[in-house]
Amino acid sequence: MPAGYGEAEKYSMDNDMSHVGDEVKTVGKSWGSATGWSTGVCEPTSQTCSGSFYAGYCPGPSDIQCCAPKSSGGGVGAGKLGIDISSTPSASFWTCAASSFEVVALQGYIQGCAKGGAIKAGFTTNYAAAKAAGIPRIDAYMFPCTGTQDTGVACKSPTAQLQEFLGVVDANSMVISNYWFDIEPTSTASGDPCNAWNLGAAANEKLAKEWVVALKATGRKWGIYANGNQWTSMFASRSTDIGSSLPLWAVQFDKKPGVNTVTTFMGGWTSAVAKQYNLDTTACGGGVDLDSFL
């Protein structure tokens, strides 16, 4: 999940203007159709746009963005245009993001396998920048320590990791709309910095359910981020239910925005409230993942 976790795909920055006037499909902030799609045109941001500029959809220089009309609709189930990030971008990124996106999900906690879980460096900086820029909704997610580590350091308990994470949120008076718990397997054998969910299917299921109990006990609004195609690498079957009582942020890398376009389910979920549809891309000059959020 973390944007910038791998090498980001970058649009060509060839500084030519060959893509000006290209027609593209993107999504307006008001989501005016059932699919969430709206047609726009690639234009320089120095020109007047009759609707709104949206970053991340046009090839070429970063000041060539999609000018798409604002809609009077509000397509049912499509959601709001959002991003999630794990890097610490520049001030100019946030100015651009505030005019292009309605939701940002910030990585606030990482596996930190040398410590058994750790606060993400830059979390408080990103929150302050997003708030100052005026992004309407700020979410936060944790990518916790959940496996046996090559370092020999044991993961902190779910309660301890949550207390550490939420302690920083509260100490900095953060107003977080939604919290997300990231469930995905990682392996040092595959080049990842830490191992996650490598305990075996039965132990993984037991631990995941312990986490869900701990999440609910915080009294905050939690959801689960997960990829259905990774489920059986962690649990006994695709139908293994570890927490479908919490809302789902579904991962489906088809580059189609709109929560109502999610077709991949698992773990007892039959619907989603968010969708990550494009991984490791670039918007507003920074590395992001693109999302839709209800």
Automatic annotation (TrEMBL):
UniProt keywords (A-Z) are: Signal
User: What SUPFAM superfamilies does its record include?
Assistant: (Trans)glycosidases (SSF51445)
Q: Which GO terms describe its biological process?
A: cell wall macromolecule catabolic process; peptidoglycan catabolic process; signal transduction
This chain belongs to the protein called: Putative GH family 25 lysozyme 4
Write down the PROSITE patterns for this protein, in alphabetical order. Answer: GLYCOSYL_HYDROL_F25_2 (PS51904)
Q: Name one GO molecular function term.
A: lysozyme activity
- Family assignment? Belongs to the glycosyl hydrolase 25 family.
Gene3D superfamilies to which the protein is assigned, alphabetical: Glycosidases
Keyword rRNA-binding found = no
